[in-house]
Sequence to fold (1090 residues):
Amino acid sequence: MLRAFIICLIFISIFSLLFSIEHLAYEQGYIYKGILFYAEKVLLAEEGNPPRLENIGFVYPPLAFLPFLFIKNYKIVSPIVSAFVISIFFIYLSKHLEKKSYLVVGFLLLNPLVLFLAIYRFEILLFYIILTLSISMLIIHIETGYSFYLFIGGILFGLTFFLDFRSLFLIPFITIAIFISAKEKEFSHQLALIIVKLSPIIFFALAWVYLNWIFTGSPLTFVTSPYSFFKSGPIDTNILIAKGNFLKSLSYTISKLLADMPITLPYFITLLYMRKYRMFYILPMFMLYLSPILLVFLSIYFASFFPAYYHAVIFLFFAIVFQKFLCEKPTKMLVISFLISLVFSWILPLYSKELNEKHFTKFLISGKIAQNIRDYKEVANILKKEQCKKTLIDDASGFPIVVFVGNPRMFYLPYMYEYYTVLSYPKAYADCIVVDKSSDIDKISQRFPEAIIGHINGYYLLYENKKFAIFKR
Amino acid sequence: MKIGEFLVKKNLITEEQLKEALYYQEKYGGRLGWILASLGYINRLDLFKALAEHFGIEFLYDLEQIKSLIDKDFLLKFNPYELSQYEVIPAKNIDNKIILLTSNPESYKLDNFIKKYFPNKNIEKIVITDLDLIKILEIYFKENFIDRAVHGLLYMSPQYSASMVFSKGQVFFMGLFLYASLLWIYKNPISYFTFIILITQLFYLFAIGFKFIVSLAGTKSEIQQTVTDDEVKALNEENLPVYTVLVPVYKEPEVIGILINSLKKIDYPQHKLDVILLLEEDDIETYEAAKAQKPPINWRFMKVPPSLPKTKPKACNYGLFFSRGKYLTIYDAEDMPESDQLKKVVIAFGKAGNNYICFQAALNYFNKDENFLTKMFTLEYSYWFDYMLPGLFNLKLPIPLGGTSNHFDVEKLREIGAWDPFNTTEDADLGVRAAGKGYKVGVVNSTTYEEANAKLKNWIRQRSRWIKGYMQTWLVHARNSKNLYKSVGLRGFLAFHLLIGGTPFTFLMNPIMWSIFLFWLIAQAKSIDVLFPTFVLYISLFNLLFGNFIGVYLNMLAVFRRKYYELLPYAFLNPIYWMLHSIASYKALYELFTKPFYWQKTQHGITKFKPPAISNA
Fold:
């Protein structure tokens, strides 16, 4: 009872912390747009015309959308899910680390990168924690033989696919690690272990292919679509250079690891302890411990990577969980490495290429953040005020507007069957049109190039800001 | 002179044999004569004759002579079950002198009987063998025994008997359902079939969730074992109770040898094993095969008088009347329990507390590699007994018992009315009934290896009987829902419906749902879309993809845990195996209406595989 109370208290405290920070930023006009993207897709799936599951697009890992189905206030989705996940992680750690688990969770919550993920990128935080637990459970299974850990670890590994498709990259690696790990055991055991461990992720991937096929007509939409998860992120020149080139990818991976090392220092220190534990180069724990490095390398190789600092968080999770296995008292060096990591987590993101984590870290230090949703809110307010019944818009960039308006049936959007008919002759259907002037993929500005200078036939320019123009019939 | 010395003096045993028996007596306790006979050093007739001589009591072994001593009217005044327990037959009352026939003349039980019924009478004891005692009871109380074996539960708790297949309420409800269905189909067939699909899919969804949660709880049993090996080693063997083993057989002469050998190997004092072979009267060949094995004195053969229904539970009820054990288990003739199973159960009962009625051991197969069917059967049983039942146990939910290797506290078993002879899965019913009466069923970490059904027709027969039994069990307890709910709470109540009612329902609906899916897959017919509105479609897709996967994956894990690695790929063939279940389910449904109590006999001893030597897992 007391334990349940403590866990509830931890959950509530974490949620309060995360939500307070997010709320302060929101008051200044900032929210990570990915949150609005998920919220819009779920809104379309639930209240679109017609409401249907395929409105979420089937190009992104689906678990990120799921919480939005149950929690209607998009602002609290990420804090709630993250608080829940961190609490679970705490429960898992507390079985071995006992009181030290409070310190660990405290350490994590002081880290701006963890806070950033927890407040805005819950799907990534979830992916990191689930992947860490899955790998650690595989090791526990190898060590103890208990199928419980294989069961949970296998399912968790399968679930990582629904959070981040890149988990597929780890399949060959885990296969090799298991073969090496169980070398004293018979071949059939190794093979069986691989089948059991990898079946969920392979099955889930095939299920996703099937769902893509029945809902979009192509089984590989999630790979080939221009909006695919693999293609939708920001692009870095160095990554493009390294793409498909083993040596360049390796070189870039090493440079990235070195650049992040002040933050990921505990990971490498723990690696040294493994050597002490006589596992260096020999046992699977070592092999499997390298999973995050491999994930980064393959993400770079397949150009599905952006050099943000929040990737360092998975290294920290691995360090914490594997430290737990070593069951040794943390040495001074390890404690110092965690402190160094904490300090650099506040410094390095200030120079990040990933603007969201950069601005967020600045906000945590200064209390000020550059707004990023004001334009969208203004457009949404005008659409509501002008009582536009049907608005033509491309939500590739205008998705926040749909969320702020809150009624997707007021819009003609690309997921609708009639969208291109409306686009070809909007006058007959839409009383308002919203054009994104700054986007080169906006379908409306492509259809009506003069819209950028404030002209669409049959419509007058109602409102204009730096980003959007609203036309009314 | 002590009995041992007396037997040596009479040259019935040797000094060495006496020493060995004394060693056993010191270690395990028990009667010396019985130990010697259990070891096979003295036969039954010689033992009882010597006992009588040693105590200076007359001994009779001619059945006609024994019968001539009995005053039927006097004997029939007594309760035959009590006589069986006291091992005594009050034969006659002549001028205040009571003649008592007994197989245990110096026992405290007999003294208690005399104190209870004849406190101030002259008593003349006559020794007869234990088998003659049973024969006499059978002769004079045959009708009573059979009546109790068949109708015992019906007399005690008629509401729990499956002799009434459907209650009036259930018939009314079925009628109402059919009428409403027809009306609805007439008015709007699309919405009706959509509704049926929705209900089915929602049920699947709950069943998948239930299975997942229970299995998750079940996986922990590997870490937290009910009884550890250290506990078995530390067991005080002197106080081990008498353990009855019931072995119902019918036309299975070929497996008797296996049974006797595996029971001889069991790590339990032989003289404390009370093995009762339950035979049907017309089963001469099994009887002869059993006799030819020359089993020791602690084995008894009992011929169950012919009557309807001709079912295993009826035979078990019959055997229960004569059981001497504190605990009782059922093994099929081809069963090979792990050698320390009985000890583990004794420890488990000792640890569990007074409200436990039964412990179920895991079942698995020794002929798993024989063919596709035995492989799939092994996958299924590995999952069921290693994950599902321990999961139900860990979550404190009602446990439907498995066919054999369920170990009972005899007193409690009698109290709840034992097995229902009208139910074709009497074991599952008993588990639920026990829960309904406030008792708990546990799971013990020991395995009994059986022969998996290797022939398709035989398998279908067996499975249809099981599924019919599940239908019966569901019907019986569904009409006692209020009591069940009160006893097991909401969780247990839902678990009962999902497991007992849900299993046949799932198998019956599966072919329909698969047919719709396959038709859609091949024909891409848009006409089917109207039956699957968005919400129904999503649930159906989830069930199709993840429900089936969970079923397959759990099977994989179960055989992985058992180290049956070569069976892993077969887990992917489960959908074919489930189709066989569906065939059996429709046969079961048909029989539920046409011959509800008919016992589809499973033929044993047909495997080409020889059973391996079993050690402790």
